[in-house]
Amino acid sequence: MSTPFSQEPAFSTNPGQTKRVFVVGATGYIGKFVVRELVARGYDVVSFARERSGVDASTSAEETRRELSGSTVRFGDVCDMDSLIRNGIRGERFDVVVSCLTSRNGGIEDSWKIDYQATRNALDAGKEAGANHFVLLSAICVQKPRLEFQRAKLRFEKELTESGLLWSIVRPTAYFKSIAGQVEAVRSGKPYVVFGKGELTACKPISEADLARFMADCIEDPSKQNRILPIGGPGKAISARQQGELLFELLGKEPKFKNMPIQMFDVIIPVLTLMAKLFPKLRDKAEFARIGKYYCSESMLVLNPATGKYDPEATPSYGTETLRDFYGRVLKEGLAGQELGAHSMF
Ligand SMILES: NC(=O)c1ccc[n+]([C@@H]2O[C@H](COP(=O)([O-])OP(=O)(O)OC[C@H]3O[C@@H](n4cnc5c(N)ncnc54)[C@H](OP(=O)(O)O)[C@@H]3O)[C@@H](O)[C@H]2O)c1
Per residue in 238-254, is it b (16+ CB within 10 Å) or e — as a string? Predict the structure, then answer.
């Protein structure tokens, strides 16, 4: 397979100088691809990471260096401003900050700690280092905020737009990892599980490499600056049922669905919410149930504020890798790199 990364030169506002980009969240599903894309375009990239990173902290410092090769990898704690400045920025100048940070579990406290505060730290540290542009990986679902991680993201988005820096807020639709969860079960003969008839939600999934290209484009493309940028993958929006049908088609099997009632959440959520009042340790469990309902009932598409309906046509497409390509690849090569970690509970 040819390299998925573009081979474009990095433009420079100061002749003779390569733009310096500081990346936080570099070890995430999208962050890794963003780092590789920036490196391939010739930017001078510094990746800031934890000593143990990745899903379930399973990646060692050495592996992280290998995965992010071509960039300078520095270790420290993005939640701690001193560490960010001392171990990450190190008194150097940067032109751009890119954040692909997000809470690994979507819990209430962790979302505010990472999606808001750690990202805010990166903005403040970048500003100190002379950066004039901040590229934020956000999520399309913040347009209808019902969940704590969405509120944390929105608070940061607002502060970013008021920061005085150029900003690019990228709001992608669904990632392939989020709709790959049933591949192995279906291959082994189980039905594809959908809520309702599988037509409650739709999305335009986008691959890691395509999204990384879009994020990197933000640095040089003025039409992607000081803008909120919803973005999906190529082709038409695809419902949950169509995702299942495609999988059965590629496996050469007769489609078989299990229909779950969305109303089950209307029992689970109030019970967990009440129990969380008595036992605060259950607050995250109640939030995970709300997250579960949200993803089973809301489309990852642009919301038309006038109609209150999701609009597939208004959701921009970018890139080349389709869900068909993705399913075809994982059926041959397996699901490595598509692990959800703590997110798998919803
Ligand atoms: N899943 C979807 O379908 C979807 C769709 C649209 C938008 N999004 C959004 O896309 C963004 C990126 O998602 P992703 O799947 O690439 O995220 P991810 O794989 O979960 O990566 C999260 C990144 O944040 C870092 N991080 C988390 N907690 C940290 C902590 N306490 N200290 C330091 N670093 C920490 C992680 O570092 P470690 O490796 O050290 O843990 C990792 O680099 C998020 O804003 C998400 O909401 C997701």
Answer: bbbbebbbbbbebeeee
Ligand 1 site, residue 85, Cβ cutoff 6 A? no
Return mean pLDDT, the chain.
94
In this predicted structure, the answer to whether residue 77 has a pLDDT above a threshold of 50 is yes
Task: Note the pTM of the prediction, 2 decimals.
Answer: 0.95
| 225-258: pLDDT as tens digits | 999 999 999 999 999 999 999 999 999 999 999 9
Q: How far is the CA of 34 from the centre of ligand 1 (A)?
A: 12
Residue 340: what pLDDT? 73
Residue whose tokens read 């970048």: 126
Per-residue model confidence as pLDDT tens digits over 184-212: 999 999 999 999 999 999 999 999 999 99
Which of 22, 37, 100, 138 gets mutated to test ligand 1 (max ligand atoms within 8 A of its CB)?
100
- Using DSSP, state whether 233 is helix, strand or coil: coil
In angstroms, the CA 97 to CA 168 distance is: 11
Confidence of residue 9 (pLDDT cuts 50, 70, 90): very low
Residue 346: predicted pLDDT:
38
319 lines ligand 1 (CB under 6 A): no
Residue 307 CA, distance from chain mean position: 27
Number of H helices and E strands in the chain, helices first, is 12, 13
- What are the DSSP calls for 3-63, one per residue? -SS--PPPP-SSTT-PPEEEEESTTSTTHHHHHHHHHHTT-EEEEEE-SSBSGGG-B-HHH
Q: What is the Å distance from ligand 1's center to 14 Cα?
A: 32
CA atoms of 234 and 35, how far apart (whole Å): 22
Contact in structure between 87 and 46 (CB atoms under 8 Å) = no
Q: Measure the CA–CA gap between 166 and 19, rounded to whole angstroms.
A: 15
Q: Is 50 in the pocket of ligand 1 (CB under 6 A)?
A: yes
Residue closest to 2 by CA, chosen among 45, 43, 40, 46: 40
Task: Please tell me if the CB atom of residue 78 comes closer than 6 angstroms to any atom of ligand 1.
Answer: yes
